Structures are given as C-alpha cells and as structure tokens.
C-alpha cells in the first residue's frame, strides 16, 4: 500500500507552509467554516464517528474526550496543543510542524470552538526554536484573518526549556502555570480539572492535524484508510539501520515489515543487512524480534498481544551488530536524566536500573531488575516512571535477544 | 473598648476557623504574618480557599506580600478611610437595610456624619486614590461573608477607640458580624490581654466584663469576697501616670510589666517612677523597672512554671501548666499575692490557681460552664460558656440575627483627627513602630535565644529619603523627637513610603525607641500613640 | 453530613462519608496501610508510594493517601503487586538514605521484609550536616524528599516559601535557592518544617546536640502541655523537659489553634525561662 | 534575608519584561526573555524576578533549576549540545564533544535525543539545529554564531 499523503502535504505544493494560501490550498478554511456552520455538537459527533484516537501514545478516543471537556462544568476552559515532542527516536511532530503547521493550528481552533474554550496554548519543545518561530508566524496570519484573538479564541505559544517530563499532560499544565513541571496525580483528569484547575482538552499535534483533514473532507473519506477498529493513518518516525530513515504516513494495519522494507518507505535494512530487533514506541517502547516484526501489523490490538504499542510512532531499527543491553543502558540513562524526581520508584529506581546496567550486571541481576521494573511500572505516579522499565522488561522477556555479556564501557558509556 | 461599648463585651466576634470560610479578609493596621504568625496561617487557609485578602498598612510587610491588594495608607488616617467606605456604601445603596433596621441604632446620625466623606476627600488624607477606596467599599459590602481584623496599628493611636468604632460601623452597616465567616477580629498583642480583661483587670470591670457600677454585680462580689467594693471605676494607666505627676499616687505594685522600657516618652516615665514613695515589682527578670524598685518579688514563669489559664484572641480560655521547677526562691503569682495579703493581715489560704478559677467562674456567667477538666479535654473553650453542658461560642453576637434584637448595636459617629504630631520643618519624618517576627516587645523574653537575624535594632528608611539626607545604607544616624534622641543604624527599605521611617522597640538596651514616642494617649482606652511620632534624622558627625 | 458510599476493602464491605480517601477508609476498618510522606495536616504529596493499593480495574497501583474512595470500588491492600512495590520502595529509600531516626521507614522495612542492602552501593544521599544556625540543623543524608517541609513552609501552613524542591530526578533536593544557607534565605525559622519531618533530617539544634552527646533519652523526657507566653494567638505548646531544662517545644497536631504549627518565638524563644541567673534570688 | 537585588537590577529587569503580564504563569516566558536579554541567568536576576513578579525566590529557583536548557554560564559562551542518545550514538556522535572542546568560548554539553534521528548526528548550536553534524559544519555554525 505504501505511503499516504494526508497530514504531510505532497512535495509539489505551490504554497509555502507558513501562509494563508496554504490554508486555502489544503481546504482548511472550508473545514473551519464547516465546523462553525454545523455547530459544536454535530462536529463532536463527527469526530466520534471518524474513530480518531489520540496520536500522542495513549490512543484515547478523541470524540469522547471532547464531549467530556465540553460537558464539564466551568466557564473557563482551555485547549492545549502538546508539541513537547521529546521521546527518544521520535520526530514526527517536528516534521509535521515544519511541513504543514496550519493543519494542527486549524485543528486547535476547531477543538477550542467545539469544547467552548477561549484560550489555547501551543506548548513546544524548547529545542525546536525554529519550529516555534514558524508556529508564531502562522498564528499571526490567522490572527490577521480574525480567526485568532478578539471574540474567538486566543492562542499563546509556550516554549519549554529542556524537560522531557513536561510532555506529560499534567506536568505540561504545571509548566504553563509557572510551577515545577511535576506530573499531578490522576484523577482528577484534565478534562475535569486541568490547566489552572479548569476543564482542559490537551491533544497531540498529529491528532489536531487529523482533525483539520477530517473536516476538510468527511468521515467516509477519513475511514478509507486504516482498519475498522483503528481508522486513518499514522505518522511513523523510522531511524537506525534502514536505508531511508524519516517520517512516513502509513495507514493503520499496514504490516511492520512493509514499513521497513517498502521502497517508498524505509527502503530495507541497512548496516549488516540483518534485522535483529525493532524498538517500537520510543524509549518507553517495546523490543520486537525480527520474527515478531514479520508477523505484526501497525495496529493497537495485534501489537498488544506482543506487549507492545505504537506509542509515539517511533520505529527504531537495529541490525544484529548492536548489543541491545547497550541500547537499554542508553535508555536507562535517558530516564535517569529525565525523571522529575517526585516519586520514589522513579527517582531512585531509574538511577538503580542505570547503575546495574552500566556495571554490566544485566543478566546476573535479572530478578532484581524485574522486581524493580515491576515496582516502577506499578507504583510510579506518571507514565514516565511506569514505562521507563518497559524496554528493559521486554528484552528480559525475549531470551533470544540475549547476547554475550558485554560491559557498557566497551561501548563508550 | 470599642467592642465592649457597642456589643456589651470586649472580645473578637469570630474564631480563627472563620478565616477558613469567608470571602473577604480586611486587615487594618495588622502585620499578622510577623506579629501573629499562626493566625496568619488561618488567614492564608482562607485565601487558598478563595477568600480575598486586603491589607491596609502604611508599610509593605510579609503580610502585604501575600495580599491580593495592599492599600499603603498614610499613618493615622484610618478613620478617613473607614468613613469614606461608609460614604460609598450608603451613597450607592449597598448597605444591609434589613440588618441595620433590625439590629442597630443611630443609623441616621451616622449616615449624616459620613455624608461629607466622599472618597475624593479621604484620598487627600489617606494617600489612597479614590477609585481604590470605592472598589474596597464595594467588595466589602457585596462580599457574602467578610471579616475585619486589626491590631496595634489601629489601637496605638491617640484616637484608638474612634479607629475601632470606625471599623465596627462598617460591619454594622453591612451586617458582617455575628455570623459564621463574618465578624470583627482584634488580634491581641499579648498572650493574655484578653484574659486580663476577662478577669476584670480593667478599672471599670469585675470578672466577666461585669460593670463595677452595677449594684447587683457589686453585691454578688461583695458577698463572695466578704469585703466592700468601690462603686466607681479606678484609674487607668494614663490616669495613674497623671496622678503620679500630680503627687496623689505615691505607691505602685507592678506585676509582670516593664514600663520603664515599654512606655512612650521614656524619660518622663522614669522621672515619675523616681518620685514614688514605694515601688514594688513582681517579675521573672531584673528588668529596668525592677532595678528601680524598693522591693522585688521573684516570680515564676507563668506559662512554664505555674498553673492557670490564658485567654486568646478568639476568646478561647486554655490551661497553662507547670512543666519545670522555678529557680531558687521564686514563687508563682497566686502564692505571692496570697502571701502579701496574709502579711497585710488578711487570712487568705494558700490555694492553687484552680480554686481561684472556680471562684471566678461561679461569679461570672460567661465562664460558668468552664471546668479545668473541660478546658483540657476540649483544647480550651470559647466564652461565653454559660453552663457545663454548653459547647462554647465560636461566633459571638449571633443574637443580632434574631427577629427581636435587644439591645441593639449602636452606630458611633467618629470624626477623623490627624495624629497629635504631624511632620514639620523641624521634625519632617513620621516614625511609626511595630514588631519584627523573631522578637517581642521589650525583648526580655525574645532576646534570650540565638536568632540568626538578631542584629539589634535598626531603622527602615526609604532609599530616596536616605540619599537626600546623605545617609548610606547601614549608616548610624541620630533620630530626634521632641522628647528624646537615639542613635540607630539606618537601612534602605522600600517597605516604608517616603517621609516615613520604621523602628521596633525590641532592643531597649541597644536603642531606646520609646524615648522618642509620644505619650499622647487615647482618653478612653489609655493607649499611647506609639504609631505616629514626628522625628528629625541627622547624620552622625 | 453529606452522602455515604460503599466500597470493598480486602473483601470487606465498608461504608464511608463521601470524600473520604481510600487510606482513611482502610483506617476505618483497621486495615493498616503504611505511609511515609502523608501527613494529617498537609496536602498529600503522593511522593513515597508506600501507601499504594490495588484498585480493581486500575492499570497501575493507586496511592491510597490521595485517592478519594468511590462507590463500588474494590480494593486489595496486600496483593503480590502491592507487596513488591512496598518492598522495593523501602529498599530504594534505604539504599540512599540514613534511616536511623525515621520510625515510619523502619516500620516499613520490617513489614515489607525489605532487604536494605539489595540496591545499596550506588549513588547515595550521604552529605555533611548543614549546621548554619543555632536553631535547627539540616542533615539531608536523612532526607527522603517527602515534600512535607516544603508544604509546611508553603501554602499548607507558613506561606513563607523559603524552601523548595530544586533540580530534578535523583539530584532533586530541598533547597533555599542556589544552596544558600538558611540565614541568607527567606527562612523565618518557625521550625514548622522540623515539626513535620518524618526522618530526623530536620532537627532542633538542642535535640541534635544532645543526641550526638548521647544525652537524649526519650524515657527521661517529660512532656507538658501549656500555652505560649508571647502574642495573643494562644498557641498550645508541648514542653519537652529533660533534667528540669526545656529541650524542645512542639505543638499537638490536633490542636484547633496551631494544627501543630508554631512561630519562631513559640518554638525556640523559650531560653529566657531557664537563664538561671535572670534574677538574683 | 533575601538576596540584596539592588534597585538598578530590579528596575532593569522590570523594563525588560514590561510587556509581559506579572502573573505566575508567565514565569517561564520571563526567564527565557531574561536569558536572551542578559545572555544567561544568575542568582541576582532571579532575586529581581522575585521582586518584580511577587514570586518567592526559592520557588523561582525550584522551577528554573528543573529545566536543562536555561543558560547559567556567564561570559556569553556558545553552548553546543550534542545529541549522544541511541540513534546519534550509532553514528558516532559521542566523538564530537571531544573534538569541540578545544574551541575557545564554547561550552559543550551532551543532550538527550534532539528529535533529528533521521538526520543524525544532530547538535544544537545556541538554538540552531545542525543536522548530519561534523566537526566542520559545527565549527562553521559556531563561527557564524559568534560573528553574526
């Protein structure tokens, strides 16, 4: 089936990305007008009918979320575009915002209109300063058209400052509020008590881009791709030992193997030419062996059977020259650096995992690592601590991925 | 004094707990964060639950830093503010008509008295722009619940009682009294000021705020004590000082006070004491006053070495217990007074504090239901507690909300008077005094511990004033009033406005601040005007 | 008194008032759930995770101290997942922290059969005692980052905000700003942080000195409840007396005036009582 | 006692952030603004922010010390952040810091994944992203940063 071009426009677009022309060319002006004409309730019904699910990793049904925010009591409501993409191996939001920033922005305006929010935020990763500039310019264009500000919704761009955890939705709220970006305990959920304690809709960049293209077309068009359970397309960011690393848009349900091999997608295995494993979903993802890669499609249900999820859409491909224990040590380093430090399992657990792996005791201390990993998964406050041990546990669960014990420092650790 | 006149008893009408559940907290002349830190905790609980905190204070303080709104008022202009707020409330029909009609008296005269207090006029006196006065009046009047709290910034003025009346009037006007979350809350400066009043340590009162002029009350006490009682009030402190001056009062028995350091116009106080025939001091320290005494009775530390009760600012009577042995020949106050009585030929028995309390509660209806057992079990009780099955009274004067109110609470029209001293060419600065968090009064207690901020006394001065005078940050300067001169290090501070300086009185051995302050006193309460003294500042040559 | 709801705890049906936390519900049926960071007068920090329980239908374990009980909730307090989490929490804390004066942590080690050496040997919290004033010390080797001191200094009581959690991850620490000493900081020395510290990381200088001289003996100390002699607030004090000397002042956590909190004068300003030469007698 | 901010610095800070609202939610934008204006943050700048925004000093420090990107190094050096995470490491990015450390006025830091895995090794020179980084193109970017 190969690559699809919905969210990422064709390369032969006449208009520049940051321009009103692009809005028109993409049909987003009509999409926004269609929402205004049909009214919030009908629009939310259409989102629900489309079957869109959150593209940030949790895959929560988007229509249900909008309903919840809309019906939560409170006069002040907020919508937030989560562009704090910092997951290891993940770069699809960056690509999307570089190539077509108007899509997610129109999606944001539609979302604000539907849930009744007068204030929206775009929270963007501190490292993406050039993207921030493009986004701010795009907002200015929409402001001049009267779509932003005044009686409609105001949009403020907030730049992060180097904290992976700020991408966690409640930590992101704290960051906007000027507090330490530590995650909050849930419940209450953001839809009821989010930013500034008010009902808040927070969506990933890609989800909002999907909203824009949905309303530029219709439900039937949207559901042409994907599976009945998981309609639409997904941006995947492929890196590592492939011939064409990059961001690709593919329909849900496409075989993983095809994504790696197709000429118009990743173009086959590079490096030694022999696939060892794929780390799917980013740092918090799951290792899939070459055999598993050969049999699973890109879809939530089938992947869950392998303990895996699409997560952020990161597909990291490793040939058979790579010691996965080294990879896991790198990941442990990442989590130890990025833990906010609030809860014990994550604050100390991520450090202990790193120490054990770095000392090359992965297999000798397998049961300690397992129990530690399970405690982190079960008892941490937020998704970071809960998923930090996932790649490690998935490696421990796949004995055939074991290699001869190697000291981390032999890899320049 | 003001509260007793209007409502019949001199106690705060609310509980600390009321601060948690109110909508507006107006603090006037109170730096609660430093002078009453634990009440401030209660205030901030309310703030975190959504109450608005407005502070009226000539200085920026730790309290104003946490306030939504700080009205930096000119020293001694509180009545102008209160009257202007009332003016706006009446002018715009925001007053509580039903409450005023049912529960108060004297409204018409009061309304007439504030008729010429337009906010623009008050603005010129208070230094607060008229719009902010109007806005505060609106917010106070329209809040569902509101509490006014005040401290010595209101009461240490020559017109202290009028200041208090000004605030009480606002509560009567809006019905913000006698209900949960609405009230008037004087934050007492000293640990047992309220208890002293409760016990009749006022010239015109017997225990339980019962009037000495009431023959029935007198008869009750005379029967219990087996002695005749004077039918007229005795002297308050100001009157005592006057009597000393005039030579009628020749002997003084001072218990647990250090007037030589704590009274305004210190030089004058010393000369009065020097002329006494007999001075007896009962204290735990060899204070400056004790040094002058003919006889000193060494006392025990009331809160740690003897038994009894204190009453706090929410009328909560609480048990005090001995935790350690007092030193040497020291004795507790009840023992000393009893021994003195016996030495004077009265056959009192040595009984403990419990029996004194029991006697008192049987004579004072407000305390009748308080037993030592109940006080301990319930973490103290808030008077009135008329019977032993009464739970205590967190909110006072709920009777004002009954259908028939008798007696009604009277409005008391008050007019603004400037402080006795105002800036002149010779004395161009206004000195105001107050407490610092880590220290207390004349320092006899608080100078005993090693606080990291203890650098002795210093004066806060606005940097622009200091630069004009050629005073560098930290320079020692001379501060001179019409009564005395002290030297003190001056530090730059944006907490005071231009033309005002601030000092505490915690370090009399270092800087005798009260040599400067004026002994102009309120004729009704006898409190001196510590908060407003005209001074001149000279660089030390 | 509001509505009541019914939930199941370890197979037992329990009825509690709406708004009750799961932890409080467990207490009502005498089911012990350990806590470290939770404190009755402070907002739940959710940090230690010692109080986690299993809630049917929930993917992860749930902190019982902050989770409000819901109608029909089914709770298990001692499943293998709960036991593993508690044990690992104890093991992680003991691998970093000096727990010698932390009673609740010592209890948790015992009840969870934690192996205090399992994760030891790596980075730890060991550091010199911060002794920068004569009122209280900070021995951060004993800190478990429970957030209690920060909350007591902040909006749960004192509203001074002199200290914060700074940095992040394993390097998170309690800090007054750039590692300033307390006298340089906004600290007003109320000691309310000391009052709520569960591990002895914050300790009155007097107690710390007596302990280091082996003179602190809980059995020899009497405690008397009285009222503070400073301002008119009327705070209840517990005077801890050893050999006729006041060695520490605290306040009961359930007192309606203080809720266990005091100001600097009430907590530390007692020395004048025992200056034996204050009066020639 | 709070850090003595000195009036001039407080006033300068107030001027730099004059157009920003003074509510707590503007803390991070304020810190970014000051970092850009003054080149880096410092204890006395934070004390001035505390005065201007009425936020306790320690709280500001607690927030500011959380984020990895806020600059604290005085003397306005060029900060280069080299991604040494999994994908860039596979492309030998970990050698770059060694090469760069000889550049004067350059502070080299290792960075977690910069989201450029398809075009690694990646680095940030100031706030500019350099893809397919080599000692050569990094040096060129550093030069441009200094002179432009």
Structural description of this entry:
The complex is a heterotetramer of chains A (413), B (541), C (281) and D (148). By secondary structure, chain A is of the alpha/beta class. Helix content of chain A is 42%, strand content 13%. Chain A has 18 helices and 9 strands. In chain A, a hairpin with a 5-residue loop joins strand 7 (275-280) and strand 8 (286-289). Chain C has 2 domains: 1-124, Ubiquitin-like (UB roll), CATH 3.10.20; 136-274, N-terminal domain of TfIIb (Single Sheet). Helix content of chain C is 20%, strand content 19%. A 5-stranded mixed β-sheet of chain C has the order 2-1-5-3-4, sandwiched between helices. In chain C, strands 10-11-12 form a 3-stranded antiparallel β-sheet. The mean pLDDT of chain C is 95. In chain D, strands 2-1-3-4 form a 4-stranded mixed β-sheet. Chain D has 2 domains: 7-64; 78-147, Glutaredoxin (3-Layer(aba) Sandwich), CATH 3.40.30. Chain D is of the alpha+beta class and 148 residues long. Chain D starts with 6 loop residues before the first helix and ends with a helix. In chain D, helix 1 crosses helix 3 (43-53) and helix 2 crosses helix 3 (43-53). Chain D contains 7 helices and 4 strands; from the N terminus they run H-H-H-H-E-H-H-E-E-E-H. The chains are: A alpha/beta (413), B alpha/beta (541), C alpha+beta (281), D alpha+beta (148).
Structure described in brief:
The complex is a heterotetramer of chains A (413), B (541), C (281) and D (148). Helices cover 33% and strands 16% of the residues of chain B.
| Number of individual domains of chain A | 3
Proportion of β residues of chain B?
Answer: 15-25%
What value does the average pLDDT of chain B take? 92
Portion of residues in beta strands of chain A equals: 5-15%
Based on CA atoms alone, the radius of gyration of chain A comes out at: 21 Å
Fold blueprint:
The complex is a heterotetramer of chains A (413), B (541), C (281) and D (148).
Chain A: H1 20-25, H2 28-38, H3 40-50, H4 62-71, E1 78-83, H5 92-99, H6 102-115, E2 119-124, H7 129-144, E3 154-159, H8 169-176, E4 200-204, H9 205-216, H10 219-222, E5 233-240, E6 246-251, H11 256-261, E7 275-280, E8 286-289, H12 290-295, H13 300-304, E9 314-319, H14 324-338, H15 344-358, H16 366-379, H17 383-387, H18 390-396
Parallel strand pairs in A: 1-2, 1-4, 2-3, 5-9
Antiparallel strand pairs in A: 5-6, 7-8, 7-9
Chain B: H1 2-7, E1 24-28, H2 32-35, H3 37-48, E2 52-56, H4 62-65, E3 69-71, H5 78-91, H6 97-103, E4 104-105, H7 107-114, H8 119-126, H9 130-142, E5 146-150, H10 152-155, H11 160-174, E6 183-186, H12 193-198, E7 205-206, E8 210-211, H13 215-225, H14 237-246, E9 251-255, H15 259-262, H16 266-274, E10 278-283, H17 288-291, E11 295-298, H18 302-305, E12 308-311, E13 316-320, H19 333-343, H20 353-363, H21 372-377, E14 381-382, E15 409-410, E16 429-433, E17 459-461, H22 463-469, E18 476-480, E19 485-492, E20 500-503, E21 533-539
Parallel strand pairs in B: 1-2, 1-5, 2-3, 4-15, 5-6, 9-10, 10-11, 16-20, 17-19
Antiparallel strand pairs in B: 7-8, 12-13, 13-14, 16-21, 17-20, 18-19, 18-21
Helix pairs in contact in B: 5-8, 5-9, 5-11, 8-9
Chain C: E1 4-9, E2 12-17, H1 22-28, E3 52-55, E4 62-63, E5 74-76, H2 80-96, H3 103-111, E6 136-138, H4 148-153, E7 164-166, E8 173-175, H5 192-196, E9 202-204, H6 205-212, E10 222-227, E11 236-242, E12 245-250, H7 264-268
Parallel strand pairs in C: 1-5
Antiparallel strand pairs in C: 1-2, 3-4, 3-5, 6-9, 7-8, 10-11, 11-12
């Amino acid at each position: 089936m190969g690559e699809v071009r919905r969210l990422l426009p064709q390369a032969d677009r006449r208009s520049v990305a940051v321009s009103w022309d692009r809005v028109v060319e993409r049909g987003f002006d009509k999409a926004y007008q269609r929402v205004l004409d049909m009214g919030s309730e009908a629009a939310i019904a259409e989102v629900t009918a489309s079957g869109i699910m959150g593209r940030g990793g949790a895959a929560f049904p988007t229509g249900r979320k909008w309903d919840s925010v809309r019906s939560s009591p409170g006069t002040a409501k907020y919508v937030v575009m989560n562009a704090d993409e910092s997951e290891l191996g993940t770069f699809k939001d960056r690509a999307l915002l570089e190539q077509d920033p108007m899509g997610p922005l129109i999606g944001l305006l539609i979302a604000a209109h539907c849930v009744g929010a007068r204030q929206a935020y775009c929270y963007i990763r501190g490292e993406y300063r050039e993207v921030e500039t493009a986004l701010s310019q795009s907002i200015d264009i929409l402001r001049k058209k009267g779509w932003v500000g005044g009686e409609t919704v105001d949009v403020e761009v907030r730049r992060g400052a180097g904290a992976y955890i700020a991408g966690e939705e409640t930590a992101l709220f704290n960051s906007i509020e000027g507090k330490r970006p530590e995650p909050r305990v849930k419940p209450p959920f953001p839809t009821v008590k989010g930013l500034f304690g008010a009902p808040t809709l927070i969506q990933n960049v890609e989800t909002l881009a999907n909203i824009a293209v949905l309303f530029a077309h219709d439900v039937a068009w949207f559901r042409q791709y994907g599976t009945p359970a998981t309609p639409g397309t997904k941006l995947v960011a492929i890196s590592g030992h492939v011939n064409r690393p990059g961001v690709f848009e593919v329909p849900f349900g496409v075989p993983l193997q095809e994504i790696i091999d197709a000429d118009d997608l990743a173009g086959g295995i590079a490096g030694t030419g022999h696939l060892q494993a794929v780390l799917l979903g980013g740092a918090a993802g799951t290792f899939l062996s070459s055999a598993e890669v050969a049999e699973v499609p890109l879809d939530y249900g089938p992947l869950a059977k392998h303990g895996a999820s699409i997560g952020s859409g990161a597909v990291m491909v490793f040939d058979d020259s790579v010691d996965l224990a080294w990879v896991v040590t790198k990941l442990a380093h990442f989590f130890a650096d990025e833990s906010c430090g609030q809860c014990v399992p994550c604050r100390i657990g991520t450090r202990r995992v790193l120490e054990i792996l770095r000392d090359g005791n992965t297999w000798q201390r397998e049961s300690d690592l397992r129990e530690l990993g399970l405690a982190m998964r079960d008892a941490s406050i937020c998704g970071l601590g809960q998923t930090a041990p996932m790649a490690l546990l998935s490696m421990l669960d796949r004995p055939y991925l074991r290699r001869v014990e190697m000291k981390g420092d032999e890899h320049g650790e | 004094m003001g509260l007793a006149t209007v409502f019949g008893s001199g106690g705060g009408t609310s509980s600390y707990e009321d601060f948690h559940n109110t909508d507006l907290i107006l603090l006037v002349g109170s730096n609660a964060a430093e002078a009453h830190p634990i009440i401030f905790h209660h205030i901030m609980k309310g703030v975190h639950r959504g109450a608005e905190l407005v502070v009226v204070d000539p200085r920026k303080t730790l309290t104003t830093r946490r306030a939504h709104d700080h009205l930096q008022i000119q020293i001694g202009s509180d009545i102008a503010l209160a009257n202007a707020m009332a003016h706006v409330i009446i002018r715009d029909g925001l007053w509580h008509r039903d409450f005023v009609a049912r529960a108060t008296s004297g409204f018409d005269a009061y309304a007439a008295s504030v008729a010429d207090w337009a906010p623009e006029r008050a603005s010129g006196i208070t230094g607060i722009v008229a719009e902010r006065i109007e806005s505060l009046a609106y917010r106070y009047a329209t809040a569902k619940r509101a509490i006014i709290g005040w401290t010595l910034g209101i009461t240490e003025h020559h017109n202290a009682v009028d200041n208090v009346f000004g605030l009480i009037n606002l509560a009567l006007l809006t019905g913000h009294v006698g209900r949960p979350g609405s009230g008037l809350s004087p934050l007492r400066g000293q640990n047992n000021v309220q208890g002293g009043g409760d016990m009749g340590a006022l010239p015109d009162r017997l225990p339980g705020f019962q009037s000495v002029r009431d023959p029935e009350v007198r008869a009750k006490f005379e029967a219990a004590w087996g002695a005749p009682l004077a039918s007229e009030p005795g002297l308050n402190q100001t009157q005592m000082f006057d009597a000393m001056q005039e030579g009628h009062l020749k002997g003084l028995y001072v218990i647990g006070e250090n007037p030589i350091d704590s009274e305004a116009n210190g030089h004058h106080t010393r000369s009065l004491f020097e002329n006494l025939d007999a001075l007896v001091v009962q204290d735990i320290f060899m204070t400056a006053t004790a040094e002058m005494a003919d006889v000193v009775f060494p006392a025990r530390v009331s809160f740690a070495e003897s038994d009894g009760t204190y009453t706090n600012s929410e009328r909560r009577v609480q048990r005090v217990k001995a935790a350690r042995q007092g030193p040497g020949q020291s004795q507790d106050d009840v023992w000393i007074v009893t021994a003195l009585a016996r030495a004077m030929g009265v056959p009192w028995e040595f009984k403990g504090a419990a029996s004194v309390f029991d006697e008192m509660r049987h004579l004072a209806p407000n305390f009748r239901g308080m037993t030592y057992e109940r006080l301990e079990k319930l973490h103290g009780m808030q008077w009135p507690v008329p019977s032993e099955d009464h739970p205590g009274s967190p909110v006072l004067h709920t009777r004002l909300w009954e259908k028939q109110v008798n007696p009604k609470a009277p409005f008391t029209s008050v007019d603004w008077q400037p402080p006795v001293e105002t800036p002149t060419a010779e004395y161009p600065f206004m000195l105001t005094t107050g407490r610092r968090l880590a220290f207390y009064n004349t320092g006899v207690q608080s100078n005993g511990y090693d606080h990291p901020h203890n650098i002795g006394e210093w004066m806060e001065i606005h940097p622009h004033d200091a630069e004009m005078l050629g005073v560098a940050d930290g320079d020692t300067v001379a501060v001179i009033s019409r009564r005395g001169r002290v030297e003190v290090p001056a530090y730059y501070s944006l907490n005071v406005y231009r033309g005002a300086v601030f000092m505490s009185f915690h370090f009399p051995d270092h800087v005798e601040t009260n040599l400067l302050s004026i002994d102009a006193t309120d004729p009704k309460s006898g409190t001196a005007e510590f908060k407003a003294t005209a001074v001149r500042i000279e660089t030390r040559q | 008194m509001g509505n009541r709801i019914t939930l199941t705890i370890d197979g037992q049906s329990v009825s509690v008032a709406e708004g009750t936390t799961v932890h409080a519900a467990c207490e009502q049926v005498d089911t012990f759930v350990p806590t470290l960071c939770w404190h009755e007068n402070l907002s739940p920090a959710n940090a230690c995770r010692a109080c986690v329980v299993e809630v049917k239908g929930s993917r992860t374990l749930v902190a019982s101290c902050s989770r409000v009980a819901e109608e029909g909730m089914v709770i298990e307090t001692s499943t293998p997942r709960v036991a593993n989490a508690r044990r690992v929490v104890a093991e992680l804390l003991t691998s970093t922290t000096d727990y010698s004066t932390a009673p609740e942590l010592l209890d948790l080690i015992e009840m969870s059969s934690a192996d205090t050496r399992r994760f030891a040997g790596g980075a730890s919290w060991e550091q010199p005692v911060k002794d920068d004033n004569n009122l209280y010390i900070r021995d951060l080797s004993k800190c478990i980052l429970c957030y209690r001191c920060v909350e007591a200094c902040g909006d749960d009581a004192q509203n001074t905000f002199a200290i914060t959690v700074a940095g992040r991850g394993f390097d998170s620490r309690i800090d007054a700003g750039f590692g300033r000493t307390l006298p340089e900081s906004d600290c007003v020395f109320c000691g309310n942080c000391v009052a709520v510290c569960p591990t002895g990381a914050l300790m009155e200088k007097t107690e710390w000195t007596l302990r280091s001289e082996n003179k602190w003996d809980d059995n020899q100390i009497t405690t008397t409840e009285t009222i503070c002699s400073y301002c008119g607030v009327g705070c209840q004090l517990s005077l801890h007396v050893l050999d006729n000397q006041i060695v520490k002042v605290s306040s009961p956590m359930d007192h309606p005036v203080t809720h266990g909190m005091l100001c600097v004068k009430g907590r530390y300003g007692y020395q004048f009582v025992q200056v034996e030469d204050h009066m020639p007698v | 006692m709070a850090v003595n901010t000195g009036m001039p610095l407080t006033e300068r800070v107030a001027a730099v952030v004059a157009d920003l609202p003074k509510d707590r939610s503007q803390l991070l934008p304020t810190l970014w603004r000051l970092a850009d204006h003054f080149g880096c943050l410092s204890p006395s700048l934070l004390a001035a922010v505390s005065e201007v925004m009425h936020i306790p000093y320690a709280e500001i420090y607690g927030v500011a010390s959380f984020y990895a990107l806020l600059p604290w190094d005085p003397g306005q050096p060029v900060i280069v952040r080299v991604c040494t995470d999994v994908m860039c490491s596979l492309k030998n990015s970990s050698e770059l810091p060694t090469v760069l450390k000889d550049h004067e006025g350059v502070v080299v830091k290792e960075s977690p994944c910069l989201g450029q895995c398809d075009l690694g090794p990646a680095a940030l020179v100031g706030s500019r992203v350099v893809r397919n980084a080599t000692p050569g193109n990094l040096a060129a970017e550093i030069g441009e940063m200094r002179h432009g």
